[in-house]
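P.,

For your records, the input lines for the assembly:
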Amino acid sequence: MYLQEIKEQLASMLEVVPTDFVYPPAADLGDLSLPLFALAKTRGLSPVELAKELAASLKESPKFIGVVKNVNAVGPYLNFYLDSGNLVSSVISDIEKFGIRYGESDNGHEEIVMVEFSNANTHKEYHIGHLRNLFYGDTISRMLRLNGYQTIPVSYINDFGIHTAKTLWNWRRNPEFAAQDGPKGRLLGECYAQAAKELEGNEEAKVELAAVMKQIEKRKGEMYELWKETREWSISYLDEIYQRLGIKFENIFYESEEIDEGLRMVEEFLQRGVFIRSQGAVIADLDEYGLGVLPIIRSDGTALYPAADLALARRKFQAYDINESIYVVDIRQGLYFKQLGKIFELAGENFNITHLGYDFVTLKNGMMSSRTGNVITYAQIINEAYTRAEKEIITRHEDWDAEKVNKIAEALTVAALKFEMLKISADKVITFDMEEALRFDGFTAAYLQYTGARIASILRKADENIAADYSLLIHPKEHALAMQLSQYQEALVKAGAQRDPSIIARYLFELAQVVNDYYHEVNILKASTDEKIARLGLLRAVKQALANGFRTLGFAYLEEM
RNA sequence: GCGCCCAUAGUUCAAUGGAUAGAACACCAGCCUUCUAAGCUGGUUACGUAGGUUCGAUUCCUACUGGGCGUACCA
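Structure tokens returned:
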């Protein structure tokens, strides 16, 4: 990559490392900058003096002049100016060479990483909190792959907890649910919310609930049969969601399929002294490590969530030969994953597990809670987003047929939802606001897609893909555009290393801003022939970079919108 | 109680041990016989408080204040 090579050459001349270079805050200060504070200290000089000396001596060096156009000392900084023609043509040729793989790197050394995310529950509603997990996990998995890891995206569905019993308990006593038409998977969510509300403080009902749970656990009886049937509804509803949002898993695990092996492992860990019995329950006492106590089996003998997790972890490492298992789970479970890691350590299991946490999604009027009904479900948000997108398209394109409107509206909808969740750093609570989230201007997916569509439109009007002399492109806006394009790989590497998709979201937004600026400033189709074909080549490069970025975040590049 | 996280413009978010702390939205004023105005241009406004380390702190450390989360039978 052009920029990386420049940095390496300058670094070796100046006896620094490529990462010492920064980007100046303003274009007139150059393209690359080297702060001299550290270097000055080791040489016993003032940074300002050193800058002057280095600038003067570099200007004398013919080797240096071949690499960059100019260098200036500005205070304690050494500022470098790249030659526009070189910059633009090198960047375009990098992009042409790598195409869909432009930006990829091999930092992961083909290590095999399993990324577990979208740990949804059956028999419960799917809401915007789940979407953050889904999009974050999906993008992390893809980002790591682009950084040279082999990633295995998997999901782990909790189909066996007490929540399933709650839903079934209510389903049975309120026949109106079963009587309703329409998608049953979604209905189960409503049924659960009502059940949770009614079970609160209702001791009589809790006895009934325990009886339901027992049937499910024993895998026998009427409620178990109902569990099997309803479980399928939930699973197909989840499949529908994943398909609509373009999420693919290599495998989906289910708690009901891990629990038996989990219970065996609990016995094993008891014998090995990792777990103990206490107050009738089975626990891991991790107090001496500052990790408190983790209950594994309830005092009534029924299993808690960690039991199945033990078996799943072992399965992952034994069956898939992975180097690392990443759990993309809400940060509130941070303590749980520390406990799980300690348990494996005490048991002598060499499992490299990482909890990749992210903060939760809340609403302006407080935490989401199915009990109080303060929740925005997946169905609500996607329907609302789609309606708005469709309306927007129809007012702009009266001539489009319904099929075309639908196709574009769908792409805009999925992109909008993903981008809203990914553009915020994982360590921030998202306070979800429907109006803000579904706008089409500003820092949004629609802005990015619109930028892409306008480029595509120009390219359609003049499809002259012929060899061009890119060194003609010396306009300052072309220089700025090439600089931004050249930084795509850095953004992807940083995002991968920090496991933070918001870095790519911001990079793309900045790229789109530079592109829009260029679009308004420089005419492409009406330029002279040589300039025109060169500019079209630049636009093709921009299109490729945008498309690669969109794909990384999981949404479509639209030719028209 | 103990532990973890967060605090930047009216709002939602960035960045950085050092060059004028950036965007977006909102508000005001402009730009469609130049390639899609879902766009562009200009204007107004910010580092919670108090110390410390440092040549230099919004960034690192400590305390405080405010908000959130977790902390044995939810997941």
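Two observations worth noting. Residues 118-133+154-363 of chain A form a domain with the Rossmann fold fold (CATH 3.40.50.620). Residues 529-553 of chain A form the longest helix (25 residues).

Regards
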